[in-house]
Amino acid sequence: MTVHALEEMAEDGPQLVDVEASLLNSGMVRSEKDDPRGDAVHGSWYGGDEMTPVGTVGRFTGTGRYLIITVYRISG
C-alpha cells in the first residue's frame, strides 16, 4: 500500500478492514492501460460494514505483487 493510499484512508475514513473487504469482493470496474507505470485497475465494493462503498485503485508490480495506489469512500 502506498503512502498516498494511507493518507487517503485517513482523510476519507475507510479502515483497513474496509479496504480488505472491498478488494476481496470487488470486481474490476475499469482498467487504464495508458499509464507508463503500468495498467491501473479500479475496483469497488462495500467495506467491512457491508454498507459503505469503498473504491480502490492499484496495479501489479514487476514482481507480481498488487500495489494499492489509492483508497476512497464512494459518495452518492
Report on the structure:
By secondary structure, this protein is of the alpha+beta class. It has one domain (3-73). It is 26% helix and 38% strand. The chain has helices spanning 3-12, 16-25; strands at 27-32, 40-46, 53-60, 66-73. Strands 1-2-3-4 form a four-stranded antiparallel beta sheet. The longest helix has 10 residues, at 3-12. It is globular. The model has no long low-confidence stretch (mean pLDDT 88).
What keywords describe this structure?
76 residues, alpha+beta, 4-stranded antiparallel β-sheet, 2 helices, 38% strand
Provide a compact summary of the structure.
It is globular, with a radius of gyration of 12 Å. Helix content is 26%, strand content 38%. A hairpin with a 7-residue loop joins strand 1 (27-32) and strand 2 (40-46).
Number of domains: 1
Query: Could you tell me the radius of gyration in angstroms?
Result: 12 Å
Count the DSSP helices: 2
Overall, the morphology is globular
Structural class: alpha+beta
Beta strands, count: 4
Helix share of residues? 25-40%
Strand order of the largest sheet: 1-2-3-4
Q: What topology emerges from the helices and strands here?
A:
Layout (H helix, E strand, L loop, with lengths): L2 H10 L3 H10 L1 E6 L7 E7 L6 E8 L5 E8 L3
Antiparallel strand pairs: 1-2, 2-3, 3-4
